[in-house]
């Protein structure tokens, strides 16, 4: 009988129990999303400019993303044990609009990435004084939050062109107008739907103290044919947060001295007016930048992005807050000259 209680049998039983527990927890969805760091990637292999010129700048540009996925109970348990110290758990309702799901979210993210790439190329050429090839046409409704007042009044692909009588042809302007609105207040939207122009009054909803209309926005723009081909391929990476990095890389391949010899990581949504919008997952992105060995990290002002980056930067990574492409270029040019 003693053999049943030998240390090896006990350890074996515990191992089996732990394995079964881990498998069970890994099959249970927690209702949260988990954000994990991903090492920053060089941008150059993703960007191809037909008019590419020989480079004199020896620095490297990096873009950063995060690994985002629905979290299981195992993910939560592992994090509770103190592992995955640089991951974050985010409630699903802060990632997904009400009534959406993970598949729809991924589809929206990929569409936003595609549009971000087109805008990045056009903004880069405009910054280099090519003919103006980009014109904002409104804020597109990508997805609508079920259960909100917007659900019965907006349709996917609608263009929001004004809020409360103020023109909102860019996502930047839309956000600035909504920043003056209190959650729960009604806003009047001017909408283009095909050949029609409509006016709708919609009650806003609140998220972290901000008023939202109840839809996922993306920038709509008329982008004329570029004077030469610019292609950007980010694979299955979604979202608009690599826009600034793509813009800088296009400029660099056209001969601009962007990095001034530094290894520079950049994050932020590039808007058609050249402003840079805040993004999510900055804590994890900062660790990805550190892992890649970058010396400088361009981070959007707003949304707590800069404070999150500085809190995780360590002693060897310089954080530069940016509000626009022009300001980012100026800040990089002002860095001390490398020996």
Walk me through what this model shows:
A hairpin with a 5-residue loop joins strand 17 and strand 18. The model has no long low-confidence stretch (mean pLDDT 84). The protein is α+β, with helices and mostly antiparallel strands. Helix 3 (102-127) packs parallel to helix 5 and helix 6 crosses helix 7. The termini are far apart. It is globular. The protein has 8 helices and 20 strands.
Separation, N- and C-terminal Cα atoms: 76 Å
What's the average pLDDT? 84
CATH architecture verdict of the largest domain: 2-Layer Sandwich
Low-confidence stretches: none
| Helix-strand sequence | HEEEEEHEHEEEHEEEEEEHEEEHEHEH
**What structural class do helix, strand and pairing data support?**
alpha+beta
Which topology of the largest domain does CATH recognise?
Ribosomal Protein S5, domain 2
Number of strands: 20
Q: Residue share in helices?
A: 25-40%
Tally of individual domains: 2
Proportion of strand residues: 25-35%
CATH class of the largest domain: Alpha Beta
Q: What oligomeric assembly is this protein in?
A: single chain
What is the overall shape?
globular
Radius of gyration: 23 Å
Helices and strands in order, then pairings?
Layout: H1 7-26, E1 29-37, E2 41-42, E3 47-49, E4 60-63, E5 66-72, H2 73-80, E6 88-91, H3 102-127, E7 134-144, E8 159-163, E9 166-167, H4 171-178, E10 186-193, E11 196-203, E12 205-207, E13 210-212, E14 215-223, E15 230-232, H5 243-253, E16 263-266, E17 269-270, E18 276-277, H6 282-292, E19 296-300, H7 305-312, E20 318-322, H8 325-333
Parallel strand pairs: 4-16, 16-19, 19-20
Antiparallel strand pairs: 1-5, 1-6, 2-4, 3-15, 7-8, 7-14, 8-9, 8-10, 10-11, 12-13, 17-18
